[in-house]
Structures are given as C-alpha cells and as structure tokens.
Amino acid sequence: MNIDLHPRTKLVHGGIERSEHHEMSETLYLTQGFAYPDAGTAEARFDGSDSGYAYARYGNPTVGMFEQRLALMAICWRRKPSAISRSVPCAACH
Question: How many Å apart are CA 91 and CA 10, to the nearest integer?
Fold first, then answer.
C-alpha cells in the first residue's frame, strides 16, 4: 500500500493482491502446482533463484496475502496495541 492509511484500515485491507478480475475480496488459490513457460523457469522456481511460486506447500498467493496481513498486525501492535484489539474480533470473546 502506497497510501498512508490508519492502522485499522491497513489491518482490514492490507495484503490483498487482486487478480486481473478485480474481485472485492481476496482470492483463495486452491491449486497445488503452477504452470511454467519452460523447463528452465520451473527449475529456477524450485531451486529458489526465481521468486515465483513453485508448489503450494512452499507458498502460494493466498498464503502470501495472509503473511502480509500478519506482518501488518505486528507493525500495528508495536505502534498501538489497542488498534489490534479494536480491529480484529477475538474468537474467545464471542
């Protein structure tokens, strides 16, 4: 996010990577594998020299969005712990 938003807004909308379809909520990528244009690209993905996705157990766009949101929560928690408690419902409280 390039815009300086309120921490609570970042917690709600941060980490979302929209596809070319511009969906309103994050897409759940349920695939286990990914297509590659050639064998060299596949090899580079699996050996880590290319940053694209290789196999869902190693990472996928859904996990990437979740990781970004957790990172935003950690940043907000360090700055203002009450922002987290007001923005993220506590499952134990309901």
Answer: 20
